[in-house]
Amino acid sequence: MQQTVIHKSNRLPMLGWGLCIVIATGCQHQPPAERPAVTLPVYSQGDADNGKKQYEEACLKCHKLQPGNNEKGPQLLRIYGAKSALLTDYQYTDALKNSNMTWTAENLDKYIADPKQTIAGTRMRSDPIADAKVRQDIIAYISTLR
């Protein structure tokens, strides 16, 4: 059996190539981050069927419902009961990252009613939804997305 001997002068280039391989392997596309399963009970103070329609009209253009499908805003699958700024495949504002908010029905209601008042520095641009019934319906729908 023949033994391969590497001359000292050849070790540095080999280390460089090895480092490139390690970096390239570490930079491969990772699967999209997902939120953990929802543990809060379904929000029953709204009409989820109407909430779905309202969501599709007011929210879906920016907030998709599939992991890894972030548009202008992060996807919202399993947002109900989750901590804010949890997805690793979306670039949140520092304001949202530092809010330490949990998306309960109460916090979602405040945020949907007036995002910029609830979290100063948020990027969310949509017009606030003033109608409390519409907000309740949207939250009821969001709470079913498990």
From TrEMBL:
Domain Cytochrome c: 46-146
Keyword Transport attributed: yes
Single GO MF descriptor: metal ion binding
SUPFAM superfamilies (alphabetical): Cytochrome c
Keyword line: Electron transport, Heme, Iron, Metal-binding, Transport
Superkingdom of origin: Bacteria
Family annotation (InterPro entries): Cyt_c-like_dom, Cyt_c-like_dom_sf, Cyt_c_1A/1B
The protein's name: Cytochrome C
